[in-house]
TrEMBL record:
CDD domains: PRTases_typeI. InterPro entries: PRTase-like (IPR029057), PRTase_dom (IPR000836). The keyword Transferase applies. GO terms for molecular function: glycosyltransferase activity. The keyword Metal-binding does not apply. Pfam families: Pribosyltran. Residues 24-194 form the Phosphoribosyltransferase domain. This is Phosphoribosyltransferase. Keywords: Glycosyltransferase, Transferase.
Amino acid sequence: MIFSDRVEAGKKLAGEMAGVCKHNGLVLAIPRGGVVVGAEIARSLGMPLDVIIPRKIGAPHNPEVAIGAVTQDGTTFFNHSLLAFLGLEEKDLTGLVDEQKREIKRRMILYRGGVEYPDYSGRCIIVVDDGIATGYTVLAALRWIRQKFKPQKLILAVPVAPRDTLDRLKDEVDQLVVLAAPDDFYAVGQFYRDFSQTTDQEVIQILKERTAPQA
């Protein structure tokens, strides 16, 4: 399955999700591209939209290699087998973790004006991204949401992800909505005709249009 862009992917996902959250639903999207997808789901289902901002922790000498992820409150998740292979320990990564925590705070303030959330406890929460590769940032987001908000139902909705990643994530959620799980997966962008980078300003504008109500 090839999507023309993130808007089309969001509309197709929304079409598969009618009735998933009958009451008190909320979309939490992962910036930046996930916000475009999440906005289409939020519009279609009549839900507010907010963001969740986990950040990948890249290997010290190869930032593209994900060795873990960090959440808003500094909780970290590491691929310990990969750390062992690279001869690294968690303490070696303190500087990288702190750097990503600062970036999370910067983006929270930039996108939504602050780092504090309304009380989303007990809601039906849909976590959205524009696709998943290794799944570490999504895993961090799901576990943080589960601990922070104790949702009545936790749903992960993405247009595309590899099967092995989905196998690792399926037990983290109550429902998984995925349009394509190809065996031949190299990168999320290969499944979009237009995978141009979403800008900070686009994220800010989308959130202004669908701001989650304050508790």
